[in-house]
Amino acid sequence: MISFLLRKSVYAFSVLFGVVTLVFFIFNLSPSDPARQIAGQNDSEEILQAIRRNLGLDLPLSERYLLYINDLSPISFHRVDEAESAWSWDDEKYQGCLLELTGSTGISIKKPYLRRSYKSNREVSAIIADSIPGTFLLATVAMAFAVFFGIVFGVLISLRKDSPEDRFTLFVSALGMSLPSFFMAILVAWLGAWIWYEKISIPLILLAFPLLALAYSIFRNRREYQRGRNFRYMLWGGLAALLVLVSASFVEGFSSIMAFLSLSLPGTGLPMSGSLYSIDPWEGEYLNLRNLILPAITLGVRPLSVIIQLTRNSMLDVMGRDFVRTAKAKGLSTFRVVVVHALRNALNPVVTAVSGWFASLLAGAVFVEFVFGWKGLGLEVFSALEKEDLPVVMGAVLIIASIFVLLNLLVDLLYAWLDPRIRLT
The pTM is what? Predict the structure, then answer.
């Protein structure tokens, strides 16, 4: 087990080192000039040179890279004989202790240093510490929403394989996986916080056509209830109602008729933008969980679609095994066979997907947080990219990459503990 842990730790360290190297050269080879961004367009060349010297931008690219690695490393080397050197120890920057090796060189054990923001001059670690709790909460709620409904719908459609409900759910889940996050964010914000903010008006034709199609299906089949065929007729009735609404919307006066023949339901009452904490001019800052609903639904759509399909396929595989057939032969109830015997053994791929998708949600929250104005790491990254605040962007990318690597390492260790055969691979 120890050798397995060492191999996985070396692999995780190699991935992080590659991410650090790639991120550094991507952002430092860009044509933008951070000194010009900080100083403005009209400052003199002397001021620009002073800013570049203060930020270390006047050094060769290779030395800047080694300095960045040295700042990130918990064990770093410094000059102790030259206070003006870029390699010198600075008590204001580093949090740790310095041990002098020779008259000119020292080694330190310190907290990784992510530099300072170009714009606010705050430490990047402090900026990330302030913003990541909002993103973590958003990703956790979105993942909980996706896991619960994904497992429920996956189990239900696995029991109805190749039925119209199964095909319809698979089609919707495939559509959910294909839609980009920024498009879903705009769509959900428009529907949930604009169109349906005060009330939801449902034209009665959308209810009448499917119900009439259902009645026709029952009558045609001699009043026998056939779920698959009835569902198919209801689906065609709903599509016919949508076609009538779209076609008749071009007719003058049709909108007023539809407004009269509509069923009004209470609206969502959810704001289009807002963070976990809102500010009231009289009461001050207060917790506002309503702002979490729309961003969490938007962020959870894609993992929900994936979990539905994974649960369905895994359940279909497990339901055909011998121990499930034995449980059925013993006369156990369908609920006990499905939940106690089949579902517990079908959740392994779902657990793997959840661990990977949770880290993906932290990275994919950038557009969602921007659209909904949710104060988190994603909104901070978007603002830093807009202002070309490279230390903040690089620090955020490294934190997200570290979360990815750490979660994958924990999942590998969990699998190795559950199945000793994995340790030999």
Answer: 0.79
